[in-house]
Amino acid sequence: MRALTWQGRRDVRVESVPDPRLQDPDDVIVRVTSSGICGSDLHLYEILGPFLDAGDILGHEPMGIVEETGPEVSALAPGDRVVVPFNVSCGECHMCGQGLYSQCETTQVRDQGKGASLFGYTKLYGQVPGGQAQFLRVPFGDRLPIRIPDGPPDQRFLYLSDVLPTAWQAVEYADVAPGGTLVVLGLGPIGEMACRIARHRGVENVIGVDLVPERLQRAREHGITVYDLEQYGDRLADAIRDATDGRGADAVIDAVGMEAHGAPVTRAAQWATGLLPDALAQRIMEKAGVDRLGALHLAIDIVRRGGTISLSGVYGGMADPMPMLTLFDKQIQLRMGQANVHRWVDDILPLLTDDDPLGVDTFATHVLPLEQGAQAYETFQTKSDGMIKTVLEPW
Q1: Which of these, 27, 28, 127, 204, has the minimum number of CB atoms within 10 Å of its CB?
Q2: Could you report the per-residue pLDDT of 4-24, keeping only the tens digit for each?
Q3: Alpha helices in 354-389 (DSSP H)
Q4: What is the pLDDT of residues 123-153, one digit of tens each?
Q5: What contacts 356, CB < 8 A, 6 or more positions away?
Q6: Per-residue H/E/C for 269-317
Q7: Alpha helices in 134-209 (DSSP H)
Q8: Which residues, at least 6 apart from 187, have a Cβ–Cβ distance to it below 8 Å?
Q9: Coil, strand, or helix at residue 360?
Q10: What is the distance of C-alpha 325 from the center of its chain?
């Protein structure tokens, strides 16, 4: 089959690799029809190389058609249409029973001290082959894949794999009271979808912040109040306080994560670490890794006293300097973590089967063949050609 593989920093290639096979009796093989490129895939492209091996298959936002099932699978049959969540979760353990699918005890990567395995996301999360490929082996066939109806195009359901549940959880964790104000930092796919979901769920005042003109315009077209970080710069927090009776936002979603704009010294350190031999780079990142924290520090400044910060952007540092005095003094609540995909499916699926209030049918800015995957990563990383969300089609 053809699959998009990691080969080195800023080097991904579509190559011919062996087809996946059933390994356990409850496995299914999915013929992938659509697979998204996620903003967190860029962390693999740019920073997390020490935890990847050449040839690793990337991608954690796939959907497709069941091609083959193991002998213990009874809920699915060949020909069924499914979305595959990015968490590899069993659906039966204690954590899954608590709705914490991203902490699944069956697939926790204990030798790395991490939670549930993830498709296509480094040794830290199980080194499971990903879904930017023509075929994908999916374990726990009766409980992990989400069966969806035939008919609507892939993009109506594709974002159940990651974008929709991640954005939904971010809004849920923000927990904005009626009449409150929510600020979303970063208007990439997750941030913009969080804005749409917040508006749909009745948050009256939603403010989006970014510095990419295309992202700002797109959010504006969906009724979101936008602030251009390039325009406001260091005055952004004051401007938001001015717009909220001097208090600040009731909640802030940080949808940016470890590669925030700015922080040139930290960026240089990340880059230099990636040039070291993998074993040494891994030890440094695991013990002394530092993120670019511009977005998180801005969130701490923007949020009102007693407010909530919801982190959906991925962070990976182990020695991040945090302003604990400010966090404590302002009585800020922090909620975070990988999205627990299955926890939110029942809330989201009705919005996709009856109508399209979140605009998922037209959410992708680029739909490309898998063979153009390397070019797509480069374009996404440089934020060029108006690329905000890209879907790859393996066939």
Answers
A1: 204
A2: 999 998 999 999 999 999 999
A3: 373-381
A4: 999 999 999 999 999 999 999 999 999 999 9
A5: 156
A6: HHHHHHCCCHHHHHHHHHHHCCCECHHHHHHHHHEEEEEEEEECCCCCC
A7: 163-174, 189-200
A8: 195, 208, 209, 210, 212, 215, 216, 218, 219, 226, 255
A9: helix
A10: 30
Mean pLDDT for the chain overall: 91
Provide the CB-side half-sphere exposure for 261 (13 A, CA): 17
* Torsion on CA atoms 112, 42, 31, 88, rounded to nearest 10: 30
pLDDT in tens, 333-381: 999 999 999 999 999 999 998 789 999 999 999 999 999 999 999 999 9
What is the C-alpha separation between 200 and 352, in angstroms, rounded?
13
Model confidence, pTM: 0.92
The Cα diameter of the chain in Å comes to 62
